[in-house]
Specification:
The complex is a heterodimer of chains A (about 120) and B (about 110). Chain A has about 120 residues and is mainly beta. Chain A contains no helices and eleven strands. In chain B, strand 4 and strand 5 form a beta hairpin. Classes of the chains: A mainly beta (about 120), B mainly beta (about 110).
Chain lengths: ~120, ~110
């Protein structure tokens, strides 16, 4: 069974440009999460989808970040316009069906390393 | 502020030795999990300990949890070169599904 995949693995862009990251969760997983690790700091939660709905977007840093999950399958995270402080590794994770209070293991993808020059 | 902070930030040991990493957190938790990240790879789930548990074992891994001190430790016994990676603790609180991670410990196991 394929794990969580992310594309691209590495992206280098200039400040002010737009970048779109993609995440394909494990097939059948309703939950999809985005996290990011800025250089030297902890991995921080960005947002959580349940199917196509945003369940929790409390970690999104500002309105330059837009996440979508049309159809409840893959998700995209767009950064527009990118700033220097957006550089870091963006991780996607997925887990099985959503049930309040249930602990479902989150399976992580390899991450996308974003470098903004 | 960080929910999870690990120490040490970096640890270098020889193969066969034991490695101990610590994690402290600030708020009440439902469970605490440890993850490993090999260079260029995603985070791999290692072990989960619930808030009402004090110790858990999985193979060469031993995790302890002290909720009174809001701290956890991960012990890797008889380390191998393949254990070289970054290790992160992550907590889950309340009804939220999101994980709150610490800054991680970089473990280097040399031959």
């Amino acid at each position: 069974e394929a794990g969580v995949t992310q594309f691209p693995s590495h992206s280098v862009i200039e400040k002010g440009q737009t970048v779109t990251l993609r995440c394909d969760p494990i097939s059948g997983h309703d939950n999809l999460y985005w996290y990011r690790r800025v250089m030297g700091k902890e991995i921080k939660f960005l947002l959580h989808f349940v199917k196509e709905s945003k369940q929790d977007e409390s970690g999104m840093p500002n309105n330059r970040f837009l996440a979508e999950r049309t159809g409840g399958t893959y998700s995209t995270l767009k950064v527009q316009p990118a700033e220097l402080e957006d550089s870091g590794v963006y991780f996607c994770a997925s887990s099985q069906a959503y049930r309040q209070g249930r602990v479902d293991e989150q399976f992580f993808g390899p991450g996308t390393r974003l470098t903004v020059l | 502020s960080q929910q999870g902070e690990e120490d040490p930030q970096a640890l270098s040991i020889q193969e066969g030795e034991n490695a101990t990493m610590n994690c402290s957190y600030k708020t009440s938790i439902n469970n605490l999990q440890w993850y490993r990240q090999n260079s260029g790879r995603g985070l791999v789930h290692l072990i989960l300990i619930r808030s009402n548990e004090r110790e858990k074992h999985s193979g060469r891994l031993r995790v302890t949890l002290d909720t009174s001190k809001k701290s956890s430790s991960l012990l890797i016994t008889a380390s191998r070169a393949a254990d070289t990676a970054s290790y992160f603790c992550a907590t889950r609180t309340g009804t939220a599904s999101k994980l709150t991670f610490g800054t991680g410990t970089r473990l280097q196991v040399t031959l």
